[in-house]
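[Discussion] Sanity-checking designs against the backbone

I'm trying to build intuition for which residues belong where. Below is a structure token string of 145 positions. I'd appreciate it if someone posts a full sequence so I can compare it with mine line by line.
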């Protein structure tokens, strides 16, 4: 038995949450991933750091999905800003997972601007959108392997 803190279990939970996210079940995703975050940080180190990025991106996207909750948006920002450099180092700037994280950051700041207008989040959204290919935004990746 592998247990709740094993990397395979955590990967399975993240994969399931990626499906729940596609169904807009944001709170369910947060309820499953947030308690597992400390274990994911322990399990996904070194060569597995990319999996931590996937975990954090899924959690960040779910938090954005709650909309006007400033605390959740702040947590989403923390998750996504941590995930992005890991993707950049492990996958590069043009890989689908990296671009999905960039798109999530643009979405975050767009949502935050709507929730708290006039605080400069629109400029941050524009900065992240500028990092995306000009032809179309990144498509979400499939569940993290």
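Best answer:
Here's mine. Compare freely.
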């Amino acid at each position: 038995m592998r247990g709740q803190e094993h990397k395979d279990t955590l990967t399975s939970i993240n994969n399931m949450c990626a499906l729940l996210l596609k169904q807009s079940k944001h709170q369910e995703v947060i309820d499953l991933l947030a308690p597992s975050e400390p274990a994911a940080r322990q399990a996904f180190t070194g060569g597995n750091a990319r999996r931590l990025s996937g975990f954090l991106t899924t959690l960040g996207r779910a938090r954005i999905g709650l909309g006007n909750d400033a605390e959740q948006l702040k947590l989403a920002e923390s998750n996504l800003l941590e995930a992005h450099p890991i993707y950049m180092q492990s996958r590069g700037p043009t890989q689908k997972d990296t671009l999905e994280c960039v798109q999530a950051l643009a979405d975050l700041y767009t949502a935050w601007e709507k929730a708290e207008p006039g605080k400069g989040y629109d400029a941050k959204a524009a900065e992240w959108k500028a990092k995306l290919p000009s032809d179309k935004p990144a498509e979400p990746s499939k569940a993290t392997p």
